[in-house]
Design goal:
- This protein has about 500 residues and is an alpha/beta fold.
- It has three domains: about 325 residues, Nucleotidyltransferase, domain 5 (2-Layer Sandwich), CATH 3.30.420; about 70 residues; about 90 residues, Gyrase A, domain 2 (2-Layer Sandwich), CATH 3.30.1360.
- A six-stranded mixed sheet has the order 8-4-1-2-3-14.
- The chain is elongated, with a radius of gyration of 47 Å.
Length: about 500
């Protein structure tokens, strides 16, 4: 997604919102806020949230508290998503204490050895209608209604170095939630009541870990022990229904309870797992300004940020905005982007037009240069031609005429070419001999050459070298005489064609 995106993470006692600006290089956190839900009045809290920061965005995403959702793990006889969506209500009808027609059901595929195993979530349609209406009345019309903690678990699984089997724990004020991920897929989500007031009350003001010295209070240890016992029992119950189920390799911690300085230590000792606090702001693709840093609290805002970074185009996680609650297509975003798109298209067309004009003038210039060069070559080759119309075509015609002139007349009855004769004679006269040919006469039966050389024996050498030629039936010296100076020999040799 491009543009401004606001993720709104809602619990029964707090609403957290994070607005980001996305681009090719990542996202920039523009604003963040957290407001309490007094006496369960969601409408009043949303009004306060919309007035606390500028949250007007291109896209909104919101969560549904997990305690309003029922979860089931099922094995389907097929893996086709469309078939599963059609058959899932009938499969879940006998498992739920409600009429299946009153429920909205969504699911995700789980990576399991069992064929077609899915993790399904159902929520009452009347609750979704009222919940969505409250959001819309306050100016928030979300594209996605997600289940809390699911986007954060998906973000964790996308990070390099995250183990294949993990456990995500969010410690809230009144509720805690756990997400079990196996084989890099969400396999289980559970929300359970837990009185975490002793933990929250023991968090130092300003989150200064130096305020805590010595062992943690007994009531705090008791709260963590209760959380760990619930987690162990839940994971054990889930694993007992399956064979050879791998256990989690690492625990990731978030929520207000994660602000307690010794939370990681207590959880690691009780669960025998490495525990680590989550801070999404450490992601290299996430940037924030100095004005955001002072208000930023990772434990409280990880959920909203992971929701804002959720990819709405992929089948990632849950979304209860379907069927009668499906988001209507919006066109105001296109209207808003239309001027920018028009400017962009104008620039592209301008560059294309400029490129075409430059190419035209460049080719025209090259054409003129080549035309001048061709004309120059034509004048050098055929200086006797005065009228030049099409030099290329005129040269072609002249070449054809020259080719015809190099052949013997048709009536001679031979297919030997004059050029072949010249080549043969030239190759057979040794280059060491000083021979100057003055005249050559070729007719249908003979070839006569007249010339000058240095001595009579050289004339004999010429005759002897020409006799083995396959083109001649006989070679005769017609004459050989001293020239007027007495220093050279004039000769004439006759060669009879075969």
């Amino acid at each position: 997604m491009q543009g401004k995106i606001t993720g709104i993470d809602i619990t029964e006692d707090q609403i957290t919102a994070v607005q980001v600006q996305t681009g090719l290089k990542g996202c920039q956190i523009l604003a963040c806020a957290r407001v309490p839900v007094e006496d369960g009045d969601l409408n009043e809290a949303l009004e306060a949230l919309s007035g606390s920061i500028v949250l007007k965005s291109d896209t909104y995403l919101a969560t549904i508290p997990g305690d309003h959702v029922s979860f089931r793990n099922l094995s389907m006889p097929f893996k086709d998503v469309k078939k599963i969506r059609q058959a899932l209500p009938f499969e879940m009808e006998s498992m739920l204490p409600f009429q299946v027609e009153d429920l909205l059901i969504d699911f995700i595929m789980t990576d399991s050895p069992a064929r077609g195993e899915v993790f399904a979530a159902s929520c009452n349609r009347a609750f979704i209608s009222e919940y969505l209406g409250t959001l819309q009345r306050n100016g928030f019309d979300p594209d996605v209604l997600e289940i809390r903690c699911s986007p954060l678990a998906s973000w964790l699984l996308r990070q390099l170095g995250t183990p294949d089997h993990i456990l995500l724990l969010e410690i809230g004020e009144k509720n805690s939630a756990m997400v079990l991920c196996l084989n890099r897929r969400i396999a289980l989500i559970r929300v359970f009541r837990s009185n975490n007031a002793p933990i929250i009350q023991s968090i130092p003001k300003g989150h200064d870990t130096n305020d805590l010295e010595g062992p943690p209070p007994e009531e705090v240890v008791a709260c963590f022990n209760f959380l760990c016992a619930t987690i162990r029992n839940t994971v054990h119950a889930f694993a007992s229904e399956r064979n050879t189920l791998p256990g989690p390799e690492k625990l990731f911690l978030t929520g207000i309870g994660a602000l307690y300085p010794k939370a990681e230590e207590l959880l690691s000792q009780s669960l025998d797992l490495t525990a680590e606090r989550i801070d999404m702001s450490n992601d290299k693709r996430v940037r924030m300004g100095a004005d955001i840093v002072k208000d930023w609290s990772p434990a409280l805002m990880n959920g909203a940020l992971s929701l804002a970074l959720r990819n709405t185009r992929k089948e990632e996680g849950f979304n209860f905005r379907r069927e009668e609650f499906e988001r209507k297509k919006r066109y105001f975003g296109l209207k808003k982007a239309a001027p920018k798109v028009a400017v962009f298209l104008f620039l592209i067309l301008s560059f294309l037009a400029a490129d075409m004009v430059i190419d035209y003038y460049t080719l025209k210039k090259e054409y003129k240069i080549l035309s001048r060069e061709i004309t120059s070559v034509f004048k050098q080759t055929l200086p006797e031609v005065i009228r030049i119309v099409d030099p290329v075509q005129q040269l072609r015609v002249k070449i054809k005429e020259l080719k015809k002139s190099t052949s013997l007349r048709p009536e001679t009855g031979t297919n030997k070419k004059v050029l072949d004769l010249l080549k043969d004679i030239s190759q057979r006269i040794p280059t060491a001999l000083n021979v100057h040919v003055n005249r050559m006469v070729i007719d249908a039966e003979t070839v006569r050459i007249s010339g000058k050389t240095d001595a009579f024996n050289e004339v004999d050498k010429i005759k002897n070298n020409l006799e083995p030629s396959p083109l001649f039936s006989g070679v005769t010296i017609s004459s050989a005489n001293l020239d007027r100076t007495g220093k050279g020999v004039r000769f004439e040799i006759r060669m009879d064609l075969k």
